[in-house]
Design goal:
alpha+beta, two-stranded antiparallel ribbon, Porin
Length: 507
């Protein structure tokens, strides 16, 4: 039963064309550890510390810890490597990207009334990279299942009359009509029929059963999945200090999602009885989204040595739009033994209706121990219940199915971060470790995440320069298509992050 559930989820979640699934929701609900180099070097364990612009986006009370107005910007090199095992064939792929991972400033205003318990307040503005989607995964190997099964499954039950060109119709016009009236699955069936991959059992307009022109046997397959884009957060912050013991803050955040995904399958076979010997199938997806969230946080000081922090992150409410395109090319042998190439390029963009996504809220608790000016140790704990994730509108049957899958297969996730810093004159040396549980009940789908980091900084007067390196590792199993060709690839992903931050005081 567990194996059946696993395959069902993977088939639904990892479709090359149909978005709005568990994995798509997790893509926009999950945050990486990016931001400033100091923040990265300590693996993001900053909830009780403040005094850093990335710490401010983690706990909004952190901006009131600054003693002077401050600004910085961070450049990052994000290097992703994927070790892929597909049908006992190992390949390595990945992508390297250059990003602005953080930029912002905080302005500190002291209360001129020195008798007041409210010592100062701060206003902050910050941009933070929450996730980079730049990646490439290559799955290569010999398989005993062909992509023809994908087209067969999509076509069964579809009347042949819908898949045939009528007088005066073109590939593009019928493809567009099917997308507007029948949906993506019928468009897939149309491509498979027009590409001669599938044929009707009966040559009648009402036929709804099909067979394949690809004979059983072995298939050489290369599957390329390329993605690009980002999830960025823009923060307006307000925080204040009460006496010398308490900092309180609030963040109002806007979110921006820009995501592109392209998949290409190249398949060839020499099976006896196959009239179709080569297939190239390409799918492209564009996603654009905007969202809003808020955060409340506090940091309490217990003497000069101990600090404790607490943060509540509201859900993020997204509005998302999607666009898709497809391309199919086949090579077949006709009845006269001629090799014919069929190219189906509709040049049509499918525009889908806007939908809403609510990501889970989260809670963080933090503690830090300071050793005067010599250094510190900080620990953060976070909890996020991914069962709260929800697609809307609720009345849509497909979204209801996805929300049911979310409730039954995701869980609450705990995360732990620990970081330390040692200072020597103008130098600072840092290190950290983080661990985050898988959001899935079944960790075969997506494993736990582990990572470590280190870095250093140098300061001269009001100018600081910081460098860091961090690495995170996570394993997952990814099915190639939603139906038919559901052979999984085992992917061990390693992300290497290099950051450089330049900081300076504001007069």
């Amino acid at each position: 039963m567990k194996k059946i559930t696993f395959l069902f989820i993977m088939g639904i979640a990892m479709s090359s064309m149909n978005s709005q699934s568990i994995f798509d929701g997790l893509r926009y609900a999950s945050d990486g550890v990016y931001g400033t180099a100091r923040y990265n070097a300590m693996s993001g364990a900053f909830g009780a510390l403040g005094g850093d612009l990335s710490a401010m986006q983690l706990n909004p009370a952190g901006s009131a810890v600054f003693t002077n107005s401050y600004a910085n910007a961070t450049l990052a090199v994000i290097d992703k490597n994927n070790d892929v095992l597909f049908n006992n064939t190992a390949t390595r792929s990945g992508d390297t990207d250059f990003n602005l991972s953080q930029a912002g400033g905080v302005w500190v205003f002291y209360n001129p009334n020195q008798e007041s318990d409210w010592r100062k307040f701060s206003i902050g503005l910050n941009y933070e990279l929450l996730n980079s989607y730049d990646d490439e995964v290559v799955s290569r190997g010999t398989n005993n299942t062909s992509i023809d099964q994908f087209f067969l499954n999509q076509a069964q039950g579809v009347p042949l009359n819908l898949l045939r060109l009528q007088p005066g119709e073109s590939i593009s016009s019928l493809y567009r009509f099917l997308g507007e009236t029948e949906g993506v699955s019928v468009q897939n069936a149309f491509l498979g029929y027009q590409g001669f991959i599938i044929e009707p059992v009966e040559d009648t307009a009402s036929n709804t059963n099909y067979f394949s022109n690809v004979a059983p046997g072995s298939f050489e397959q290369d599957h390329f999945k390329y993605s690009d884009g980002y999830h960025g957060k823009y923060t307006f912050n307000f925080a204040t200090q009460f006496k010398d013991v308490l900092y309180i803050g609030v963040n109002l955040n806007t979110h921006s999602i820009n995501y592109f995904e392209s998949t290409l399958l190249l398949e060839s076979n020499n099976n006896e009885g196959s009239t179709v010997t080569n297939i190239a199938f390409e799918n492209n997806l564009w996603v654009f989204g905007n969202g809003f969230s808020a955060q409340l946080g506090a940091i309490a000081k217990l003497g000069d040595q101990f600090r404790f922090g607490i943060t509540y992150d509201s859900p993020t409410w997204f509005t998302i739009s999607e666009e898709t395109t497809q391309y199919l090319e086949t090579r077949r042998i006709d009845s006269d033994d001629n090799l014919i190439t069929e190219i189906l390029n509709p040049n049509i963009v499918n525009f889908f209706a806007y939908y809403d996504l609510r990501t889970p809220s989260s809670f963080k608790a933090s503690a830090a121990m300071l050793f005067g000016q010599k250094g510190l140790i900080s620990i953060d704990y976070g909890y996020k219940d991914y069962r709260q994730m929800e697609f809307k509108p609720k009345g849509d049957p497909f979204f209801n199915m996805q929300n049911s899958l979310i409730s039954n297969n995701l869980n609450g996730v705990s995360s732990f971060r620990i970081g330390g810093e040692y200072r020597y004159n103008q130098w600072s040396f840092r290190g950290g470790y983080r661990y985050e549980e898988s959001p899935f009940n079944d960790t075969n789908i997506l494993g736990n995440l582990t990572g470590y980091s280190f870095g250093f900084g140098y300061s001269v007067n009001s100018v600081k320069i910081d460098l860091s390196y961090s690495q995170a590792n996570q394993e997952r199993n990814q099915s190639l298509y939603s139906t038919g060709l559901t052979t999984p690839s085992n992917i061990n992903n390693t992300e290497n992050l290099y950051t450089l931050t330049l900081s300076f005081g504001i007069l």
